[in-house]
Amino acid sequence: MTSSAAEPFSAGNFQTWLGQITLAISEGADSDVPCGSCSACCRSSQFILVADTDVAARSVIPAELLFAAPGLPAGNHVMGFDAQGHCPMFGDQGCSIYDSRPQACRTYDCRIFAATGIDVAVDGHTEIAARVDQWQFELGAEGDVALAAVRAAADYVTANAQTLGLEYSATARALAAIQMTTQP
């Protein structure tokens, strides 16, 4: 993780969050992230999946910004970023399509890196890493056990990233660690 002198920011109760992120991952439920004024994920040179099911997003995203998503079925696209690394739908007032944003944006939650201890800065996402360094979960005894399990899964995924085909993405490693911990 990167070093940050910024004030801590409440990530909420760990077990509550773990249940919510599990629903976001497995069922596509929206994440409820207390972003405040942070928009690092919108400004971090990330490709955004615009799935074939993102009908509302497709109706407001100019077609010339969408490219076939490698490795996914036809009809799925990715949207790139501008020269500054910003999502092309991000402007001075924030997300210009917030109510119609793709599901990938609705489920994104950078607290996954705070939970897993996986460093998103290795992917060049230093602004996200700075926010991650600020997150502090409320734990308690049961939360400590759950966090330890998530971190152990993250250590396993990181150690075996190449074998698992996850060596190129901190996000994919973090998602895999959460899934490993929460799936029966």
Strand element count? 7
Q: Which structural class matches the secondary elements? A: alpha+beta
- Which outline best applies? globular
Strands ordered across the widest β-sheet: 2-4-3
Order of helices and strands: EHEHEEEEHHHEHHH
Describe the structure.
This protein has 184 residues and is α+β, with helices and mostly antiparallel strands. The chain has 2 domains: 90 residues, no CATH class; 75 residues, no CATH class. It is 42% helix and 12% strand. The chain is built from 8 helices and 7 strands, in the order βαβαββββαααβααα. It has a 3-stranded antiparallel β-sheet with strand order 2-4-3. A two-stranded parallel ribbon has the order 1-7. α1 packs across α8 and α6 packs across α8. The longest helix has 20 residues. It is globular, with a radius of gyration of 16 Å.
Compact description:
The protein has 184 residues and is of the alpha+beta class. Helix content is 42%, strand content 12%.
Features:
single chain, 184 residues, alpha+beta, 2 domains, 3-stranded antiparallel β-sheet, 7 strands
Please outline the helices and strands.
Blueprint: E1 9-13, H1 14-27, E2 48-50, H2 55-60, E3 66-68, E4 77-79, E5 90-91, E6 94-95, H3 103-107, H4 111-116, H5 126-134, E7 135-138, H6 140-159, H7 161-164, H8 170-182
Parallel strand pairs: 1-7
Antiparallel strand pairs: 2-4, 3-4, 5-6
Helix pairs in contact: 1-8, 6-8
